[in-house]
Write a structure and sequence with these properties.
heterodimer; A: 372 residues; alpha/beta; Rossmann fold; seven-stranded mixed β-sheet; five-stranded parallel β-sheet; 12 helices; B: 317 residues; mainly alpha; ABC transporter involved in vitamin B12 uptake, BtuC; two-stranded antiparallel sheet; 11 helices
Chain lengths: 372, 317
């Protein structure tokens, strides 16, 4: 009898531990303004990571705080962090739709299918999916032309490199990342045609140890500036520890790492969120595909490190004006592919369709794109 | 070429350190007949507590102590469930992993300073920096052994000591006897329960130290899931080492080094697709499993504890 009791007890302990472990992701109530006469519109944000990643989710959360401030008691905002992509995402999104949330932002590529799935069940809810390509009458997509500030960051790196070897820690061989590498390389070579950009794939968005190892490998191979397309600051930290420079991404990483981060191409989602939430409040919201650039302010270049000299800042400003004016864009010819063949002839520019499906490197990139 | 080899060796040793600590720890635990699958959770808990301690106190000794303590508590929980309660070792171990990794993420979001929204991510604390030993570090390739941090240097002592204790002392003999045949050991007058508790807890301390090496030396700082599955690799490494602490560093260096090598090959411009190289450690795990099983049948010299995973019940025959 006594043994049975003990077995039951230990089973109970194990179950309790399992249950406590399952409560990984949590919803956090954002501070909401005092209720007003009009019922506030309920808005939810679904995050892939913790806002403390200092990268991707950090920037979405920064924008959330800005719109909360701006719209005050017109809206009531909640967010949920670290929601895994996959079936769990659909459950979480549905839960918010059922609770009367009028507008739901799903902020990772992998939420695409779950968003569409839930949107069909709730035709009155506005869904906004970040970085995907599937839309519906009540589902919009939004993303930014990150390649534009990456081109500007390339100008900085091309000027500041001493041995013309720049390392680039890249996440996955998908068009978004390839586009960024190409734009960065074009920017660097526009001011310094001898620059070589060495690419290492980590095949992860978020693995601090691996991203650091990749950066160290590039530094050992002779790179004196490290650029990256990842969601952590580890490559920046690795470069700083070696006394080398780096270019951040996602957020103003110089603030967290130091002056060795020359600048960072960053997201400024508030520019978009303010506009689309306003449309929803006015009742003028329509399904759309948003791909804003430097002129829309949704992507930016972070403030320069004191290490960046004035003439480099001027060059960046001139290129920025050229892009903002709309006369010219990063992927306007003449551009050669990695193997030396013509990718974009003189006088032509790549269409958005070509940009979104980019699969080859430009001249000056050292590395290969794994073929599926 | 020599420079490249040296730099690969430096990073390989550094990457292998946390794996070696955890492997030696798990070897001791398994030698007593207890299988602990809670490694991943224990390493994460070791990483988060030691980093939090280093952030607030800037005292590295205290940080290591925190990791050791947390490892001991989690391992003691496992020992209590499996030795005293005789619960299934696999289930208990898995729940330690789930519990540990969940709690570590939670603590990472709560232990930080208010200025960072109570988040530990992105903070910097004290860390173990590599100490270059003049002279010795000039030796080609092998000099890499003398450009390491204190925790790695400690391994140069710990590994031979762990081997000596296990094979050359009476306590080590008792430990192996308990893992081999607890009934016989009991008849010899060895306290099976005490032995299993002792070495499960000792193992847990070392595993947790492995996690602390990640957040204090290898990738200083806390990031969610900083171990990235290294706890699971260790379970294969124990088999690779054939339960011999002296072989633990070999496997750890091999597994730790593959990433370092594959990124260097990529940076050097090889055409091998990254996905194949990323696959390599796991492929190697399978090969090692096959090889060790095959070798076991061939020579019976492998040290797999016969009573591994089995609860010992004295009164029921």
């Amino acid at each position: 009898m006594k043994r049975k009791f003990w077995m039951f007890f230990s089973l109970l302990t194990v179950i309790a531990m399992l249950l406590s472990a399952c409560g990984g992701s949590k919803a956090t109530e954002a501070p909401t303004a005092a209720p007003s006469k009009a019922e506030p519109m309920k808005i939810a944000f679904i995050y892939i990571g913790p806002p403390g990643d200092l990268g991707w989710t950090y920037e979405h959360d920064r924008a959330r705080k800005i719109v909360e401030q701006k719209f005050g008691d017109q809206i009531a905002v909640k967010y949920i962090e670290s929601v895994p992509e996959g079936p769990d995402a659909a459950r979480v999104i549905r839960q918010y739709a059922q609770q009367g949330y009028k507008m739901i932002f799903t902020t990772s590529f992998g939420y695409m299918d779950p968003t569409i799935e839930v949107a069909q069940e709730f035709p009155d809810v506005y869904f906004e999916h970040c970085s995907g390509y599937k839309t519906a009458p009540n589902v919009s997509t939004y993303f930014g032309r990150m390649y534009q500030p990456r081109y500007l960051a390339g100008i900085v790196a091309g000027n500041m490199t001493k041995n013309n070897n720049i390392g680039y820690v890249a996440a996955f061989p998908i068009p978004e990342v390839i586009r960024g590498i190409n734009a960065f390389t074009l920017g660097a070579r526009s001011v310094n045609p001898d620059v070589k950009v060495h690419v290492v794939w980590t095949n992860t968005w978020y693995d601090p140890v691996k991203e650091r190892e990749a950066a160290v490998a590039l530094l050992d191979a002779g790179a004196d500036i490290i650029a990256q397309h990842q969601d952590t600051t580890e490559p920046q930290k690795a470069a700083q520890e070696r006394g080398m420079l780096s270019i951040g991404y996602d957020s103003d990483m110089g603030k967290f790492v130091g002056d060795s981060v020359l600048t960072s191409p960053i997201w400024n989602w508030a520019a978009y969120y303010e506009q689309t939430i306003q449309n929803a409040l006015d009742g003028t919201w329509k399904s759309h595909q948003y791909w804003g650039g430097l002129k829309d302010n949704v992507v930016q270049l972070a403030e320069f490190s004191p290490k960046v000299p004035q003439d480099v800042r001027d060059q960046v400003e001139a290129a920025k004006q050229k892009i903002v004016s709309g006369d010219w864009d990063v992927f306007c010819g003449p551009i050669n592919a990695q193997d030396g063949s013509v990718l974009v002839p003189e006088g032509q520019c790549m269409s958005d369709g070509d940009l979104l499906g980019m699969k080859v490197f430009v001249e000056g990139v050292e590395g290969t794109i794994p073929q599926n | 070429m020599i420079d490249l080899l040296t730099s690969i060796f430096v990073i390989t040793l550094r990457a292998g350190t946390s794996l070696t600590y955890a492997t030696v720890g798990e070897i001791y635990t398994e030698r007593s007949g207890i299988l602990n699958l809670g490694l991943e959770g224990m390493m994460l808990m070791g990483a988060v507590t030691s980093f939090a301690t280093s952030y607030y106190t800037h005292n590295l000794a205290l940080s290591l102590l925190a990791a050791i303590l947390v490892g001991a508590i989690l391992a003691a929980t496992h020992a209590f469930l499996t030795v005293t309660m005789r619960a299934n070792q696999v289930v208990s171990g898995l729940s330690i992993t789930l519990f540990g990794s969940g709690l570590a993420s939670f603590l990472g979001e709560r232990l930080g300073p208010a200025s960072n929204n109570y988040n530990l991510v992105g903070m910097t604390g004290s860390r173990f920096s590599p100490i270059v030993i003049p002279g010795l570090s000039q030796i080609p390739v092998l000099g890499a052994m003398f450009e390491q941090d204190i925790l790695t240097y400690a391994l140069y002592l710990l590994v031979p000591l762990a081997w000596f204790y296990l094979y050359k002392t009476r306590n080590g003999l008792n430990l192996r006897a308990v893992g081999e045949s607890p009934q016989t050991a009991d008849a010899m007058g060895i306290d099976v329960v005490k032995t299993r508790y002792l070495y499960t807890i000792l193992g847990g301390m070392l595993v947790s130290l492995g996690g602390a090496h990640l957040s204090l030396a290898y990738a200083p700082g806390w990031a969610e899931n900083i171990t990235g599955g290294r706890g699971w690799i260790v379970i294969a490494l124990v088999i690779f080492a054939m339960w011999d602490p002296a072989r633990a560093p070999l496997g750890a260096i091999l597994f730790g080094g593959i990433n370092a090598i594959q990124f260097r090959l990529q940076a050097g411009g090889t055409d091998i697709p990254a996905s194949y190289l990323n696959m390599a450690p796991y492929l190697a795990t399978i090969l090692v499993l096959i090889a060790t099983t095959w070798w076991e049948n061939l020579s019976h010299r492998v040290g797999a504890p016969a009573a591994l995973g089995l609860a010992y019940m004295r009164e029921e025959k």
